[in-house]
Amino acid sequence: NKELIISKEQHPCSPSLSRSASSSTAASACQLVWRGIPPPPQCKTMYDLSLFALQLNELEDGVAPTDSRLRQDVRYYENGDIKKAGLIKDQLEEKQRALQQLIEVDQYVYKPAWFDYVKTNFNEDLPFDTVLYNGEYWSSKLQQRWLRCTGVLV
Fold first, then answer.
1. What is the pLDDT of residues 35-44, one digit of tens each?
2. How far apart are CA 97 and CA 89, in angstroms?
3. Residue 16: other Cβ atoms inside 10 A
4. Distance CA 6, CA 33 (A)
């Protein structure tokens, strides 16, 4: 197992990675911030992903129609139909290019469904500099009302 150990004298952005707290710095001067777990037994057949990463990609009922886990090309790829996956991915990319062209000529205004652009004056050169969650996703999921979902995946 790997552990991430940060020395209290170190800058938090430059942690030392070691197998144990006693390897290079006294244990009392360190703080354990992360401990890895062994990979799942089937990880070699699942792209060497960790259990956490594998669970992130699990299908879930009632998600937004724009959830990337619902992408047909990904499902075909995971089921071994590479040719069909490629065809569907090509169609999706064509839709994305067409939408991008509309955005570029101001015929379509893109607005994220679950986030708002916020100007905080952190950078005067940008029209916005922060993206904040707007709190709408979970109520939409609970009610199964996906009116905010637009774009190429719908």
1. 888 888 888 8
2. 12
3. 13
4. 7
